[in-house]
Design a protein that fits this description.
This protein is of the alpha+beta class. It contains 12 helices and 29 strands.
Length: 606
């Protein structure tokens, strides 16, 4: 496919913008519904004007409240006719007088309602849209939509082709930076467009039977290094994020970080058969005359003008194609196949450091390798489990929509821990004469290459110096074949200055969960071949030559297997109450020019 960088710009006319009473007026006595409506529509009109002046078409996602406003409806129809903008429908922006009177609740997140209320609300909103426009929309969305909601909408309203379906890494980090009040946990999903599985909306569909019928896009294109380490609300392709994160020059009001973020996404086409993607999704609430985040209105306006001007410049140079959501859904299906992975070799564009992450997802798993730790795996989500995870009142997950991890180095410690215990990580320990050094302490850089249906990440060599002046240099390589659920790790000794033996120990420390807190590990079983341990927090160890190290985690319907060749030793470690983890590992004694090859397989438990 020819290199194509696609942009979706989505605007929504919120009639009662978020934080309206706090942000739009300092004089509550003079605050009227009419003034809110006028300011909100004025901002929407401004955003539309800026996009169109730069030659960018938009998708107008009508909110429930806007469907009661004749002026908002007229504006949407006018821009659809004049500019080709798509008129769509969002399940954000539910709160308004009509909604609260009808549903007697202050809830506003569609994924948190009961199944019955979700369906009732969807039918209400879609019916009102049809009444006002004479047709059903082709795209919809929210911050998150679980599989049941998507399946219901697609079954009842087959015109829907696309939806905003998740917000990348919006979990405990966002919750904590919102004073422990933002109950929108949805970590573990894709950062780029995907076709959701009918079973779980985070998981890319593996085949036609698994296809939910829509193309999903994330809410904003996030910095997938900065967002993993910190609050995603500060690092995304929305000027609001950049201003909230104070990532701009306070004197000149310039924000080159935004342009670097857009360019980093453009660069991802190099690794994804030429296709790269960006989206900007905004409502009017942030661009108000009173200012936000200590930023005056003039800066809010300039940030949006500058950001859209950059997209317009790229389009004029033939480096960007703007599409509506429905247009993009058609394009995506024409240019992607089931099982095709999405990968990102992502550099630190926020601080300009040497940190680099490699991200990968397909229907089998999502994982992340950190080159600051010699390719240590710092995140692993077992999509192969096909885990059914409905959300909302009446389910086991009222607000927690996250796809569970097995490794999450920020929530469950990673390499560095307290003086006792371990953190979740997959890495390699190198031992000589009783001295052990973990490759997670060695920094390097990675280079990505592709073969048909295969991605190969090769790291620059790292050198370790032991006592007695023994020096070993190791190259790490990671090979992933699409939709097989296997990661092959090769640790090769390319130079050893003395004729001695070195032990390599490839290990995986795991747990399961969606937050920082440990969950009950009872029910988990560990094994090496026919030796089995049922998890009882007893700190036990088993090992066997020429074996498969295995863990079964029924709580998330997942099996992990780790094995190597017959000359290696496989082992398992059971954790204990202070360190409630498990460990799978493979050890091998090597000499110069020899390698340890280890295969990690992620499988469905039943």
């Amino acid at each position: 496919m020819k290199d194509t960088f696609v942009l979706n710009v989505i605007h929504r006319p919120e009639m009662v913008p978020e934080y309206a009473e706090k942000a739009l007026s300092s004089d509550k006595d003079n605050l009227t519904n009419q003034s809110l409506l006028k300011e909100s529509l004025d901002i929407f009109i401004t955003q539309q004007r800026i996009a169109h002046q730069n030659g960018i078409k938009t998708t107008i996602q009508m909110t429930y409240a806007s469907l009661f406003n004749d002026e908002a409806i007229r504006l949407a129809k006018e821009d659809h006719e004049k500019y080709g903008d798509e008129i769509a429908l969002t399940l954000l922006g539910l709160p308004c007088e009509q909604f609260e009177k009808k549903y007697h609740t202050k809830d506003f997140c569609i994924w948190m309602f009961s199944k019955e209320d979700k369906e009732r609300i969807v039918d209400d909103v879609f019916g009102l849209f049809k009444e006002k426009f004479g047709f059903y929309p082709m795209s919809t969305g929210s911050y998150f939509m679980d599989a049941d909601l998507i399946n219901y909408i697609k079954g009842k309203y087959p015109s829907i082709k696309a939806a905003v379906a998740t917000c990348w890494e919006e979990g405990p980090k966002a919750y904590h930076t919102c004073n422990n009040s933002w109950y929108t946990f949805m970590d573990g999903g894709p950062w780029a467009p995907w076709i959701p599985s009918k079973i779980n909306s985070h998981i890319p569909a593996s085949n036609k039977d698994d296809d939910s019928g829509i193309v999903a896009i994330p809410h904003l294109s996030r910095d997938i290094l900065a967002c993993f380490d910190g609050n995603g609300s500060n690092f995304g392709t929305h000027p609001q994020n950049v201003l909230r994160g104070l990532i701009y020059d306070k004197d000149t009001w310039e924000f080159p970080y935004f342009y670097n973020l857009v360019d980093q996404y453009r660069h991802l086409g190099k690794f994804n058969n030429g296709l790269s993607y960006n989206m900007m999704f905004v409502g009017p609430g942030w661009m108000n005359k009173m200012g936000r985040w200590e930023a005056p209105y003039e800066l809010l306006l300039k940030s949006y003008e500058d950001g859209m001007a950059y997209y317009g410049k790229l389009k004029k140079e033939g480096k960007l194609v703007d599409m509506t959501m429905a247009e993009f859904a058609n394009f995506y299906r024409q240019n992607k196949h089931y099982g095709e992975p999405e990968v990102a070799l992502w550099n630190d564009i926020l601080y300009g450091g040497n940190k680099q992450l490699f991200w990968y997802y397909d229907p089998s798993f999502r994982f992340c390798l950190d080159m600051n730790q010699s390719g240590a795996m710092i995140d692993l989500r077992p999509y192969a489990s096909k885990l059914y995870w409905p959300t909302g009142i009446g389910t086991e997950h009222i607000y927690d929509a996250s796809f569970p991890y097995i490794i999450q180095a920020n929530y469950r410690a990673g390499y560095f821990t307290h003086y006792k215990g371990e953190g979740t990580l997959k890495s390699c320990k190198v031992t000589y004469d009783g001295e052990t050094i973990d490759l997670a302490l060695c920094r390097t850089k990675g280079h990505l290459s592709s073969l048909p249906k295969k991605k190969i990440l090769t790291l620059d060599p790292v050198t370790i110096k032991f006592h007695h002046d023994v020096i070993v240099t190791i190259i790490s390589k990671f090979i992933v074949e699409e939709n097989r659920g296997e990661i092959e790790t090769i640790r090769e000794i390319i130079d050893l200055n003395k004729d001695v033996a070195i032990e390599l120990n490839e290990y995986l420390v795991g747990a399961y969960g969606t937050t920082e807190y440990s969950l009950d590990m009872h029910g988990i079983s560990l094994s090496v071949n026919n030796q089995v341990l049922d998890y009882e927090y007893k700190c036990r160890h088993l090992e066997e030559k020429n074996a498969v190290a295995k863990v079964k985690i029924p709580q998330i319907n997942t099996i992990l297997e780790m094995n190597s060749d017959e000359s290696s030793l496989s082992y398992i470690n059971e954790g204990y109450a202070f360190s409630p983890m498990f460990t799978l590992g493979v050890k091998k004694i090597l000499k110069n020019k020899e390698a340890l090859k280890v295969c990690l397989k992620v499988k469905k438990a039943n």
